[in-house]
Amino acid sequence: MAYETIIVQIEEGIATITLNRPMVLNALSNQVFNEIAEAASTLSADPSVRVVIITGGEKVFAAGADIGQMAAATAVEVMNSDRPSQRAINIIENMPKPVIAAVAGFALGGGCELTLAADVRIAADNAQFGLPEIKLGILPGAGGTQRLPRLIGVGRAKEMIFTGNFISAEEAWRIGLVNKVVPVDQLFIEAKKMAKRFAALGAVALSMAKSAVNEGLKMDLETGLQYENKCFNLLFATEDQKEGMKAFLEKRPANFQGR
Ligand code: CO8
């Protein structure tokens, strides 16, 4: 599929999805969400892709869902739409490989919510995060009311959701919303560095570890521990487990094949 609102590049097993609507600060129209969903599904199924980076470039991540597109919608239209935003963000969250959000500039509303579906968030020092939906008379409806409290705790999440205030990259790091803050000119270098570390590891183990965390968060502790145990057991059927442990015992780097 030829994309019009995103750019997809693949280099040495690392795929980068770049949001590309600079004139409207990468506002996320339904077309953008549909293209993200399509790209993420394609990259999920491509065994040569080990890690995915999602970014908006060095100036802005995304200033939210496209307000122009939503302004005149009726409740019935919104209810009956197939919710491209939720669908795309869920696909990103459930990709069977690590997803890194590399965030510069504004990550607002649906843009912030998109970053919450990534496994790791790296912020440039010019990044600003916020859920300003409340100021538009709506709420963060692309997962923000659910994923944000799970990530940073209920109190801080409610403050962000109820005030719509933007927070700096430093503050986002302090409250655990982002993993790392780097100078903006280092953003892609750091994201690639982390992606390369993931890419060198066993793809099946990474995928199972991601599933154990994501699915486990939906379960009570006892069920989650059982699920973790099943994932753990299954990894002993992989060549990567044999190779990883053999390499350790032979005091050499492991050569994982992703099977
Ligand atoms: N949607 C559409 N266009 C936008 C958006 C947006 N979210 N954000 C910015 N733009 C456009 C502006 O209209 C402007 O266009 P033009 O040049 O034609 O006037 C252009 O981008 C540049 O923006 P500004 O001139 O406003 O730039 P500033 O630097 O002055 O301000 C801000 C930057 C502070 C980011 C400001 O643009 C702003 O407040 N944007 C809106 C932020 C916002 O409220 N985001 C939340 C949107 S709602 C949402 O995300 C809901 C998600 C869940 C539901 C999903 C269902 C689809």
TrEMBL record:
According to the UniProt entry, what is the EC number of this protein? Answer: 4.2.1.150
Respond yes or no to whether keyword rRNA processing is given for this record. Answer: no
Entries under Gene3D superfamilies matching the protein: 2-enoyl-CoA Hydratase, Chain A, domain 1 (3.90.226.10), Lyase 2-enoyl-coa Hydratase, Chain A, domain 2 (1.10.12.10)
Listed GO biological process terms: fatty acid beta-oxidation
Q: Which InterPro entries match?
A: ClpP/crotonase-like_dom_sf, Enoyl-CoA_hyd/isom_CS, Enoyl-CoA_hydra/iso, Enoyl-CoA_hydra_C
- Write out the catalysed reaction: a short-chain (3S)-3-hydroxyacyl-CoA = a short-chain (2E)-enoyl-CoA + H2O
> Known CDD domains for this protein?
crotonase-like (cd06558)
Q: In which pathway does it act?
A: Lipid metabolism; butanoate metabolism
Q: What class of enzyme is it?
A: lyase
Q: Does the keyword Lyase apply?
A: yes
Please list the GO terms describing molecular function. Answer: 3-hydroxyacyl-CoA dehydratase activity
Q: Which UniProt keywords apply?
A: Lyase
- Give the UniProt family note: Belongs to the enoyl-CoA hydratase/isomerase family.
Q: How does it assemble?
A: Homotetramer.
What name goes with this protein?
short-chain-enoyl-CoA hydratase
Identify the species of origin. Desulfosporosinus metallidurans
Which taxonomic lineage does the organism of this UniProt entry have? Bacteria, Bacillati, Bacillota, Clostridia, Eubacteriales
